[in-house]
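This protein record is not my work; I was only asked to verify it. Take the sequence as given and treat only the tokens as open to question. I have pasted the whole thing underneath without changing anything:
***
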Amino acid sequence: KQDGGMNRVLGTFGLTMLGIGAIVGTGIFVLTGVAAANYSGPALIISFIIAALACGCAALCYAEFAAMVPVAGSAYTYGYVALGEFWAWVIGWDLILEYAFAVSAVAIGWSGYFNNILCVIAFINIHGVRQSATVNNIIVGIKLAVVALFLALGFSHVDAANWVPFMPYGWSGVFAGASIIFFAYIGFDAVSTAAEEVKNPQKDLPRGIILSLIICTVLYIAVSAVLTGMVPYLEFKTTAAPVAFALQAVGYHWGAAAISVGAICGLTSVLLVMSFGQSRVLFVMSRDGLLPKFFGHVHPKYKTPARSSMLVCVVTAITAGFLPINIVAEMTNIGTLCAFIIVSAAVIVLRKKNPNQVRAFKCPLVPLVPLLAIAFCGVLIYMLPLVTQIRFVVWLLLGLAIYFGYGYNHSIISQARRGQLGAAPIPGTAAPAEQGVHEGHPANH
């Protein structure tokens, strides 16, 4: 079945695997060592729990919108429906930062493999969502098997003495560690970018978002506990591959080699899903007139936004080539945290503006859960370096210049105001207003 120019082929399993594919990667295979050695120590477990709480609250907000507005574009579309065009642009600009820099951060880890692998990733994304999902499912299966292998081998070598002192850098270190390893959770929101390629979005999207986050949180906590129990946390200062390093330290050299293969698979799936998400956000922003029509082109054969996929390939390659990984990762974090805050606020706003809206999935305990998401994300933004916060402000100012210089005058809302469209469109969908986003939901202009 085709809808909106793209094929609806994904179900709950495919979406969950898509989410795991985006989440499990750099977090387990790289950032665990960095955060343990420099910020959290063995209390890395608590850092992961704090980051998970922030993401969990935000995920419930995402799930409500994903079921209510099953349209590609993720947080951009949700912001558009609840808050209007301006805030939609802000959140879309955040998502461009999140996905492009996340792909670049992972690509930097690929080093010499990067130039060869990225064109393959672009080809898979262009060829079709079914092919992307199939490749992702295979890769996710491999890396989950590798994570299970690490836990099985490492559990018997855990020494409780390595967990003392448990919190060597204090609570400030734990929260600073959470702001760094937050990068490990980025990706569950990529599930919602596939809304127009899902068979039953009202049910499958919330399930895919929540299941992928739960599974990955359990894996992260288990791996961080075993990892810091196997090797004293300070030893991770000397390695960029902490999981393989820990297995080598206890004599499992073959296990370290297997983990390295899994790490490559993990990074590949993150590249695939993040590139997928970025191209879909550009596609929807173009369809709404906020970006040039070039980005909204759907390939006539493969039914994918091929031009956006190629652009993502080129831009992320350049970013990875010229920026160090710490800057790229921190910018990814702050862009994502800001997007989470806006989506959480949008849930509260839309509950007030349209309380009778049909919601296939409802975020529980509103406004408490959205407010907790806003608070958690705000604290993590505060814990990021000042220079990262300044760079983010500059990025937002650049985005505002593009919006007022192009997007405001070319958007479908602007065209409707000028009488150039027969009917005012639904924000984020490019559909006539009289159709409604979902039964019972009037358009917000």
